[in-house]
Design brief:
Structural class: alpha+beta
Number of helices: 3
CATH architecture of the largest domain: 2-Layer Sandwich
Shape: globular
Number of strands: 11
Distance between the termini: 16 Å
Radius of gyration: 17 Å
Order of helices and strands: EEEHEHEEEEHEEE
Low-confidence stretches: none
CATH topology of the largest domain: Alpha-Beta Plaits
Length: 185
Amino acid sequence: MMQTQLIAFNKPFDVLSQFTPEPGSSARSLADFIEVPGVYAAGRLDRDSEGLLLLTSDGRLQARLTQPDSKQPKTYLAQVEGLITEAALTALRTGVVLKEGKTRPATAQEIVAPDWLWPRSPPIRQRQAIPTRWLELTLTEGKNRQVRRMTAAVGLPTLRLIRVQIGNYALGDLSPGQWRYLAAP
């Protein structure tokens, strides 16, 4: 029996969360970074999002990490456009109504810009008259583009999104494009 492999990968901006490139797309895929046979992404990060992506060779572990029933907390840092109000934080903390229904409550707090964060290439668009701020959000569900949709619903469009933790697994000091093996549970 093969031993379960678990990998933490810092997915760069403009990289697909799959090993197969999309025809006609300029985006890179996981195959451009990880040459470990038999591992697959446990969940996904959109092409325009960055940060922690877990890959595993164990289908049951993959399901446990991604299924909504498991309620694995996922923590994100979001650079948003505008000033963060207490009303916006309260809405995020109690659940935001999206087209498919209300989200589960999230933890949400304003944070200072992370001093360890790598520059994004290309950089985000910044408008001189509109400030940006940073939010830390932890969700226990994973609807399509949920963080972006939640922040937009409270008047804070997301400009940059970085996942830093899934359950007990953290991004740590991985640079974009780097990966490391983790101890499988």
